[in-house]
Amino acid sequence: MRFENYTAHNYKSIPQIINNLTPEHIHNIDIVSRVLPFKTNNYVANELIDWSNYLNDPMFILNFPQHGMLKKEHFSKVELAIKNNLPTTKLNEIIDQIRKELNPHPAGQMEHNVPFLGEQRLSGLQHKYHETVLFFAAHSQSCHAHCTFCFRWPQFVNMQGYRFSSREIESLIAYLKLHPEVTDILFTGGDSLIMSAEQLNFYIEPILKADLPHIQSIRFGTKTLTYWPFRFTSDKDADDLLRVFDKIAASGRHVAFMAHINHPKEMAPTAFRDAVKRVRNTGAEIRAQAPLMQYINDSPEIWRDMWNEQVKLGIIPYYMFVARDTGAQHYFAVSLERAWHIFRDAYQQVSGLARTVRGPSMSAGPGKVHVIGVTEIQGQKVFVLQFLQGRNADWALKPFFAQYDPNAIWLNDLKPAFGESEFFFEKEYKLILHSKEIVSLI
Ligand SMILES: *Cc1c(COP(=O)(O)O)cnc(C)c1O
Ligand code: SF4
Fold it and tell me: Which three-class secondary structure string do you get for the chain?
């Protein structure tokens, strides 16, 4: 299949759009896509979306901007500006202002995760947890389609100073040499596998040639298996791409796909299954993770089916995330209590082979916070929580408690239980954020 890219500029040429959407829907897409990124492709349109019921179709909602994704006042502002024919610079100012109100870099990514090599700020890297360095290759700042809820959305719109990317493979290697605690490099983006085999090799080859015995695993954050499976089967350089994974495996390292899969529907096409087979034949392991999103996958049956299907195909269920505090969170978020119920209901229905999955987990500033559950302790209803990953490694797996709040959707909404004035990690977390010295060390 030949890749056809659709964005706000040309999506109206998709036959299914012409045949199905009302002028009102088109208008909504036009407005919302001014603020948040929109990109889809012919495979998603032809194979994944059920056009007979597109308004409720999870794949349509995953890909096409929805009216409610912008708050009413933001929607009206853009709508009015366009209606009044404001000059482009004025319109862009309004749009940028709205984007800034949508918390473009949640969890302190920009200020607190970017490491230093001496005085040099390595802007294409993030190093938050000891073992794993995230690398934002300059060539992977897009995806084969964009998810409506994407927390990396500022990477895809032209906002000054809001992008990570790096061509500086040499700086990455120099940094890794100074950090023997790092075992994993995680290529991310966008989608790390939007790169051509040649581009990917440009990064991988020097890593394999360098003397980095502490690097055990190279991971690829990707949605390509479900947005464009032909990348691994019939694209011109599909075989070359697989050879890159072979080469990493031959160096004695683990190749890990961190595959983003939101719904069992994405796993039905033969093209997906063929891609999974070919990737697994290289020795790479595929782990699956996804956020829990209202309108897309907010039921235990969906997660149960998804995990079961993954196990059948040799994919390892890994994380269920909570909708992050950015972009259209207000539209997609599910309450923490409901997230826990959905996770638990699904977990109870699958075998141990699928119980490798962890969640629901919030990737927040202090770390990945796992909602263990809601319970009652001495007559008080509380959330039980723990860190799976902490900005301080020592925080991991210490249970802590928050007052029960049925409406809480994020860590910020939670207050300590039992009369405590703050959570156990807060003092230290504030110290970390305020100490430049420590920031440069993490
Ligand atoms: C999730 C995450 C990782 C990887 O964590 P694992 O639990 O090892 O998969 C690394 N860095 C950041 C910033 C993350 O959010
Ligand atoms: S595939 Fe990942 S990075 Fe790309 S749009 Fe979706 S969530 Fe964002």
Answer: CCCCEEECCCHHHCHHHHHHCCHHHHHHHHHHHHHCCCEEEHHHHHHHCCHHHHHHCHHHHHHCCCHHHCCHHHHHHHHHHHHCCCCHHHHHHHHHHHHHHCCCCHHHHHHHCCCEECCEECCCEEEEECCEEEEEEHHHCCCCCCCCCCCCHHHHCCCCCCCCCECCHHHHHHHHHHCCCCCEEEEECCCHHHCCHHHHHHHHHHHHHCCCCCCCEEEEEECHHHHCHHHHCCCCCHHHHHHHHHHHHHCCCEEEEEEECCCHHHHCCHHHHHHHHHHHHCCCEEEEEEEECCCCCCCHHHHHHHHHHHHHCCEEEEEEEECCCCCCHHHHCCCHHHHHHHHHHHHCCCCHHHCCCEEEEEEECCEEEEEEEEEEECCEEEEEEEEEEECCHHHECCCEEEECCCCCCCHHHCCECCCCCCCCCHHHHHHHHHCHHHHHHC
